Amino acid sequence: MANACFDAVHKIGMPEGRIPLSQTAIYLATSPKSNSAYKAIEGASATVRDKGDLSVPLHLRNAPTDLMKELGYAKDYKYAHDFQQNFVDQEFLPQEISGTRFYTPQDNPREKEIDKFLSRWGEKYSRRK
Predict the structure, then answer these.
(1) 20 half-sphere exposure, CB direction, 13 A CA radius
(2) pLDDT at 128
(3) Does the N-terminal peptide bond of residue 15 adopt cis geometry, omega within 30 degrees of 0?
(4) Read out DSSP for 32-47?
(5) Structure confidence by residue, pLDDT tens digits, 14-50
(6) Diameter of the chain by CA atoms?
(7) Does position 52 have pLDDT exceeding 80, yes or no?
(8) pLDDT at 119
(9) DSSP code of 20?
């Protein structure tokens, strides 16, 4: 939004540029606010600092060679888009942090929609109990 506004002001110049500037400022000032994305990336970063480099689960690893296939790379991988609602109950995190949830939707209208969507996939993904 801010980049589109910048581009518009750059193209049309002032004083007309004050109109998209005003509209953008109002839109951003009145839009729902949340720090859940910030908390999610901070939590993920803290986990990396605490746990270090963890191995990618074997089922998520590409297996371009016979040796990799023999070692179990890509074995039992389930492609989510082949399943109902594009969801598969499979762990994608390393074993040491299995089940960790980094994103928790907050109590605002948009994130309530996200939480409702995530709740279809179970408690691991939703703050609903």
Answers:
(1) 16
(2) 63
(3) yes
(4) ----HHHHHHHHHHHH
(5) 999 999 999 999 999 988 889 999 999 999 999 999 9
(6) 68
(7) yes
(8) 87
(9) H
Dist. CA 43–CA 101, nearest whole Å: 9
User: End-to-end CA distance of the chain, in Å?
Assistant: 35
Helix axes 18-30, 2-12, angle to 10 degrees: 170
Q: Answer yes or no: are the C-beta atoms of 77 and 60 closer than 8 Å.
A: yes
Backbone angles phi, psi at 40, to 5 degrees: -65, -45
Residue 113: partners with Cβ closer than 8 Å, 6 or more residues away: none
| Cα separation values, 39 from 34, 61, 103, Å | 10, 28, 7
Other CB atoms closer than 10 Å to residue 8's CB: what's the count? 17
CB contact at 8 A, 91 and 98: yes
Structure-token pair, residue 76: 């039992």
Q: Using a cut of 0.85, tell me whether the model's pTM lies above it.
A: no
User: How is the chain split into domains, by residue range?
Assistant: 1-31
pLDDT of residue 129 exceeding 60, the answer is no
What CA–CA distance (Å, rounded) separates 63 from 49?
A: 29
